[in-house]
């Protein structure tokens, strides 16, 4: 026989708990002295031969630190800590032989022959249980009040260390982003700055009939520099840039028309056929952020599609959702690069310069708007981005156009 399984948490809470545990990125990491020290202190203070820092997953419990125990994990069915995470703070089992939940458990009837268990809850700042600091003995016994309080204090120290590790990891990622940004910024700005300087040089010698066109060329180049600086600030300021704004019924035809107007000149300059189809669809979104999101995809398509190519932007209703598609016949993206293409400072191998900030911003903005983003690409044949968002409730799909 085996011990009884721990009662299941509500599914939604269990999902949040597991996500919180994984967010610490600590599972299956090598031993660390700071955690080993905590288990040694726990065993010493509580006068037990064994102590563990146990992290409880769905199918197993894994030990970040183990004092007096040789194994690093056990099946969840064998876990007493799976019961401990259901307690508010401290679970004490004075004699497992007299507890029907554990008396027949393999860790009780066999090595390490657990007779006594006390576990202090590991709880995230949001109150989600992820494991326990526990002490074990092979004889029945109890904890005194001081030992119980010490075990709770050690559990708080474990969580403080996990929070510190997470904060340091995030800080390191932000530092890497900013370092890459500063090191590579010249690539994004080189072309528009060169164009602007050329325009100003031409303006000195241009006649009245050409002056307006040359000035517009310089203005467009400087606008591209300004857009690049805006994207840089988005990255440098961290993820607060992508806080969602109010989501309301949004006229997608107006959004797409603004995108078409904004990017028409850049497409024309590269002899790209930019077609934005009219639509009567509406969706729950934020017009300003959605326009920025689609604009980044269109700008990326125009920039990397060969001269004479085509970019199509269209919209279609699919049941309770609306799909906006940005399609190009550019160089496409290698299959092994699709999964990482939205990372900051990365682009496909066809790119010779630039930071790849546009696609990173697309992903962050889509997430803040609750938009599902997918991409299909064939190397050498083009790319299709699909943005799926909720349609405005109470509206019906537009009637199909006459054949």
Automatic annotation (TrEMBL):
Transmembrane segments: none annotated. It comes from the Bacteria. Signal peptide: none annotated. It holds the Pfam family HATPase_c. Its EC number is 2.7.13.3. It is an enzyme of class 2 (transferase). Gene3D superfamilies: 1.10.287.130, 3.30.450.40, Histidine kinase-like ATPase, C-terminal domain (3.30.565.10). It catalyses: ATP + protein L-histidine = ADP + protein N-phospho-L-histidine. Residues 184-393 form the Histidine kinase domain. SUPFAM superfamilies: ATPase domain of HSP90 chaperone/DNA topoisomerase II/histidine kinase, GAF domain-like, Homodimeric domain of signal transducing histidine kinase. One of its GO terms (molecular function) is phosphorelay sensor kinase activity. PROSITE patterns: HIS_KIN. This is histidine kinase. It comes from Pseudoxanthomonas spadix (strain BD-a59).
